[in-house]
Amino acid sequence: MSFNSKIKTIEWVNNSSRMIDQTLLPKEFKTVDITTAEGMYKAIKDMIVRGAPAIGIAGAHGVALAAIELSKTETDKENFLNKLSLKAEYIKSSRPTAVNLMWAIDKQVKLAKETQGSIDDITNALIENGIKLENEDIEINKKMGDYGAQVVPKGATILTHCNAGALATVGYGTALGVIRSAFAKDPSIKVFADETRPRQQGARLTTWELTRDGIPTTLITDGMCSYFMSKGMIDLVVVGADRIAANGDTANKIGTYTVAIAAKYHNVPFYIAAPLSTIDTSIKSGKEIPIEERNHEEVTHINGDWICAKDVNIINPGFDVTPNELITGIITEKGILKPDFKESIKNAFN
Description:
With 350 residues, the chain is of the alpha/beta class.
């Protein structure tokens, strides 16, 4: 039985959002129950839950939790909806780059405003929709995995950056979903995983997931990809995404742009794997994608210990943007989108 059939990264249980605490992996596996909107904001901000699709579901759950809280004190429906919208905007502010968060929360707020009936009826509708989005996520990932597996050569070594696996979604994964589907058809496939500084999601999370599934995985540091590409040891790159602009420019974990440049130089195909909910058609290019500045201690410390001079300047953007001309294709639940991305993205939503 595979890792993903055993657990879910996030799920609605007994009027709470139960999630794996990813800050503890791989040393400790633990789940936490989030019961308030404030708790959900903190869980997303502190990356207890992370990955664009997963925090989208967390946002949907957060709105449902806010509704449960408000239903205990509010009797006027208009006041309830106004306060719910404020709490929704608060949860959105926890991670500004990943558009799935905004997408899911906006869906919940729209549903709340359109639902007829009492405050309890609205609250129940939000809970049901949060569970629906949660279940749909796994099916979407499996569809992406099947499409993506079609472009993986037999016996390929695939490089991935950050963690776009089951832990970044409800289950199965986006980029790692492609790897899982490909491996199911061809067990000779191997993976190189970038460590992904400064939070080491590749080292901590991707290696944990893939080795549990029995997929041969080699951990490399972020600066090594060009070396292995030059040796012909990497056949394909597949990464996830946090936001994709209407022209295909893609924001993903910091360091992705560097991998894409190296892949282009060495003629290695570079694919993005992301659901359509990650595509933000309201923005024309990657220049409009907000880039989150993370806590400087992520760079200055490892395991709580200083690793640099204490008076050095620090800049810590959490993401970078890969221009569309470096991207071979975008793997979605509707198939693989190819250049011209403006047209293929437009057609995917029709």
